Automatic annotation (TrEMBL), chains A, B:
<protein>
    <submittedName>
        <fullName>DUF1636 domain-containing protein</fullName>
    </submittedName>
</protein>
<dbReference type="InterPro" id="IPR036249">
    <property type="entry name" value="Thioredoxin-like_sf"/>
</dbReference>
<dbReference type="InterPro" id="IPR012863">
    <property type="entry name" value="DUF1636"/>
</dbReference>
<dbReference type="Pfam" id="PF07845">
    <property type="entry name" value="DUF1636"/>
</dbReference>
């Protein structure tokens, strides 16, 4: 089991960015890397997740799993994002039971997408 | 080259659904099936794309391609959605040049997600 946590690096969270300031997306990326990244979770910077009006945003993907996109995040959400990513990584299909999802994942979902390749059946 | 066009069947487009009425998502699905579905595009009904406040929504996926989610759609958008899906299906990576995307795809993107498996290199 594994997951990729894609982080939009260029996100300005819908606001103007004063010259010389680090974009909120890059701040979120740095906060995630500085925290305890769970085993099985790989943090992947991306240039744009096309969710600009709902930034900062992250996307969780994994082979054979549903993908999820979450928005309206800040660097203060890093611990909850990583806890949610760990729970996602531990599933075969990306479907974490509702009550086991962090509140930000329950309330700030932008979209989910079915797996490109269905989950492999596990041996009994 | 191919694409799956996932259509959220249960979408109520954020509105109450009068008893006995067909949900807007199911109406969009029916309109897509009734139109000329381009070669290489497969229409796939799904129960929920978790974009409920921005419905109706569809998601485009394909092996090795970026995935895209679009929202605020109605059954009247079926021809444009299918034109956009055909352009997407014809790409190796899901990245359709901006000017070749239907206006609804340019203006109503909810999110995009990198491919789980990177695009295969094509022979020269």
């Amino acid at each position: 089991m594994a997951a990729k946590l894609h982080v939009c690096m260029t996100c300005r969270a819908g606001l103007p960015l004063p010259e010389g300031e680090v974009p909120p997306g890059a701040r979120l990326h740095a906060a995630l890397l500085a925290a305890d990244v769970p085993v099985g979770v790989e943090i992947v910077p991306v240039e744009c997740l096309s969710a600009c009006s709902q930034g900062c945003s992250v996307a969780l993907t994994g082979a054979g799993k549903w993908s999820y996109v979450y928005g309206r995040l800040t660097d203060l959400d890093a611990p909850d994002i990583l806890a949610g990513a760990a729970a996602y990584a531990a599933t075969p299909d990306g479907l974490v039971p509702w009550r086991e999802r962090p509140v930000i994942f329950r309330k700030q979902s932008l979209a989910r997408i079915p797996p490109t390749i269905p989950p492999q059946e596990t041996a009994p």
